[in-house]
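User: Teach me something about this protein's shape.
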Amino acid sequence: MVDSCIKIFFISRPRIWLYTLGSFLFGIQLAMLLGYAVDGLSVLMICAVLTIPANLFIYALNDYFDADSDEQNPKKDHFEHRSDSADSYLLYLAAASVLLVSCVIVTQETLVIKLFLLWIFIILTYNIPPLRFKARPGLDMLFAANFPLWGFIGYSVVSHELPDLFITVPIALLSAAFHLYTAVHDIPYDKRSGVITSAVYVGSVKNNIRICVILTILTIVSLVYLGWFWVAAPLVVYLGFFLLHLTSAVFNGDLLCAYRYFIWIHYIVGILVSVSLLAYV
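Assistant: First, the predicted structure itself:
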């Protein structure tokens, strides 16, 4: 029983709960700074399901349907869960976890429920055949929206409306850069299994990184254009990180090690952006 609980915990990728939970809290923070009142209990309930349950839904499905490409991927040795196509229990875990999250979300208003259903649609179409957008270059980038979508949900839970939709431009650009970068490490294993992601389609690691650099620059420029200079400033860290891949033999020599740094950078930049939002109070 204990071993099963530990396994479930690691399938949910605790290192990157930040992607869902952090985005949600950013949305909450922004709404609070704009003067909206917060229902603390409601927020805490959603925060709770954005740890193991929501991430278990994402990654149990991902691990099950990526079993072939994950078989030889060293990222699955100690850093992420490795499954095989016989691990049908992953499907039951995914179903149970999304049911639990749904039980919390249905207590919210219609706008939040609609955004949540969009999130489910993104996860299902990315992973499950016959659509399986992961294997369709361009369409696989839609998956990048699943994490920042929780920021919109967080904002909507507090404000009962959507934020200024112009903010979706820098969010979409940066999320696309993140998604492309995380797919770079899987290129040879996806290619071997016939899974043509956008990263596989682009080809070389350097070409993918160059696109990440361009997307990050466009993100910073769009934020400055919107008047969010202090939010844009910390993102220079991401720009420097991607540029190092083009200039540093250390980063190119061990992409998995670089990926670990990437996760820690999210925590650092996330804190800096959160603090920078206070400049707009």
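Now, about its shape. The mean pLDDT is 90. Residues 164-281 form one domain. If you'd like, I can walk through any region in more detail.
User: That's plenty for now, thanks!
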